[in-house]
Amino acid sequence: MHDTTPNESEPRERRSPALVALLVVVGVEFAALAVVTIVLLVEVIVAPASSLASGIALTILAAIAALWLGALFIGLRNRRPWVRSGIIVWQVLQGALAIGAFQGVFRVPAVGWLLLIPALLGITLVLSRPVTEALARPAE
Length: 140
Hints:
Elements: H1 17-46, H2 52-77, H3 83-102, H4 109-126, H5 129-134
Helix pairs in contact: 1-2, 1-4, 2-3, 3-4
């Protein structure tokens, strides 16, 4: 099996602006989700929901999603090819949440835009040629 760990003696090529922008988008999404997870955790402890089980489940799901997004960020920083699919899945899920924020009884368009713009930017960047080339598997 081919080792994809970068060797310290090999010079690292510079990151393209598209890859840096994608790192920023995914990093900001990770930080925001980590903050949401902490807020949910504090809220479950301080002001329990009408259904404690639902509040705990939501907090656990947010924590799992934050860990997943953190793993994607680290993999992207290390230029691992497997992150492309995970980033696309996350951006699609975030876009679905944004669409939900635009509709329904509890609609909040500002939240919808805050979710939709980074999702569209992330999908565009992860499918761009410079990012695709940076994350391509090395030829054996």
